[in-house]
Amino acid sequence: MKKPIHRLVVKVGTSTLTYAAGNINYRRLSRLVEVLSDISNSGVQLVLVSSGAIAVGVGKLGLPARPADVPGRQAAAAVGQSELMFLYDKFFSEYSKITSQMLLTGSDMEDPERRGHLVNTFEKLLSFGSLPIVNENDSVSVEEIVHGDNDCLSAQVAALIGADALAILTDIDGLYDGDPRKDPRARRIAVVEEITPEIAAAAGGAGSERGTGGMATKLRAAQIATAAGVDTYVLSGTPSDNLYALLEGRDIGTLFCAKKEETT
Q1: Nearest to residue 39, comparing CAs of 158, 167, 172?
Q2: Kind and range of the H or E element at 25?
Q3: DSSP H or E run through 120
Q4: I need a labelling partner for 51 at 20 to 30 A (CA). Which of 99, 150, 201, 215 fits?
Q5: Residues 91, 99, 143, CA angle at the centre, nearest 5°?
Q6: What is the DSSP letter of 4?
């Protein structure tokens, strides 16, 4: 039996939030915010880890494509992050939800003192009823820009705050035993009890042109989160209503089961 979810981290990717040119997909963003606000009203504590800053910055700057150089992507992220937060604040305010921004770097998560400060800040924000929105601090950190690892950032956040579950929203409805875009016989894997070499092979490679991750980074995220006792779901971000199905315990996406603590 799946355990109840009282604290949930949701990670949303660039391909869910934007069109191919980097412009915001307002319909999807609006529905995502509506669903998250409703879930929050039900009593579930939420943290949103959101990609999309670079893509939004590219669109706002009118650039022909995502910059090839790291400083160019950092600059696009600086422009896009402010626009993204403005939109989140605007949409969430329609449902009387107070947002807060948390921009993190790898060193923030690794340094024990700073990590402790982060835990305290998250706990206080959640106790105040605020919905923290998290992203990598791309303007000063290049890890996510180079490696495309907001998936792993969401897993680290889930572990940090002791979440019951992590939901990674993507452009495919879970992990398959083959590539469903090429193989019509490929089947969705509903539950993964253990990440074996065969499961890792099924994860494949890169994601979309706008995003930088892929199923492989989601598998790494699942390894981090499940090791910390956090159930991890990979599911399609369209429609956002899939989150309701997850919370209701329906068969959706792929569940990577949290590792149970060994008893002595």
Answers
A1: 167
A2: none
A3: helix 112-127
A4: 201
A5: 105
A6: P
Helix (H, G, I), strand (E, B) or coil at 232: strand
Instruction: Please count the residues of the chain.
Output: 264
Residue 91, token pair as written in the block? 């949409």
Chain mean position to CA 54: 15
Cβ atoms of residues 249 and 183 within 8 Å: no
Buried b (16+ CB within 10 A) or exposed e, 96-120: ebebbebbbbbebbeeeeeeeebee
The 10s digit of each residue's pLDDT in 176-221 is: 988 888 888 989 999 999 988 888 888 774 444 444 447 889 999 9
Q: At what angle do helices 150-160 and 215-227 cross, to 10 degrees?
A: 10
User: What is the sign of the dihedral through the CA atoms of 264, 8, 39 and 191?
Assistant: negative
> pTM of the predicted model, to two decimals?
0.91
Would residue 43 be called left, alpha or beta, if left means φ above 0 and alpha means ψ between -120 and 50 degrees? left
Residue with tokens 């660039």: 14
Cis peptide preceding 239, ω within 30 of 0:
yes
Could you read off the pLDDT of 128-186 as tens digits, one per residue? Answer: 999 999 998 866 665 554 444 689 999 999 999 999 999 999 988 999 988 888 888 98
- Cα–Cα distance for residue pair 52/230, rounded to 1 Å: 25
d(CA 38, CA 82): 25
Residues ≥6 apart with Cβ < 8 Å to 89: 99
Cβ atoms within 10 A of the Cβ of 69, count? 8
